[in-house]
Design goal:
The protein is an all-beta fold and 94 residues long. 0% of the residues lie in helices and 69% in strands. It has strands at residues 2-8, 14-27, 34-48, 51-64, 68-75, 84-90. A six-stranded antiparallel sheet has the order 1-2-3-4-5-6, with no helix packed on it. The protein is elongated, with a radius of gyration of 15 Å.
Length: 94
């Protein structure tokens, strides 16, 4: 998977992030039922101390094939960046 987004960070600056990751999908009751993805994402984030920092974080997503996906990612605190919870909502356009 690929992910990207932006947010206003705790320093009141604009941050953008991008990365890619892997996840395992678990269906609740067959392929057309709701599912849960569990995995991880690695990439980069900007906006802290005017630099680009690496990031690695666990990810969980809840979704329904061809309808929506809600993805939550958590980046732990580092020397350069505070802990961050990120959320993406994906709605396919057909």
């Amino acid at each position: 998977m690929l992910t990207a987004g932006g947010f206003k960070n705790s320093s009141n600056e604009h941050s953008v992030y991008g990365g890619g990751g892997l996840a395992n999908r678990f269906y609740t009751n067959g392929r057309k039922s709701p599912y849960v993805d569990l995995g991880g994402v690695a990439g980069v984030v900007s906006g802290y101390d005017k630099s680009i920092s690496p990031m690695a974080m666990p990810m969980i997503a809840l979704g329904m094939d061809d309808l929506y996906k809600l993805r939550l990612m958590y980046a732990m605190e580092t020397k350069q960046n505070p802990a961050t919870l990120m959320m993406n909502l994906g709605i396919p356009l057909k």
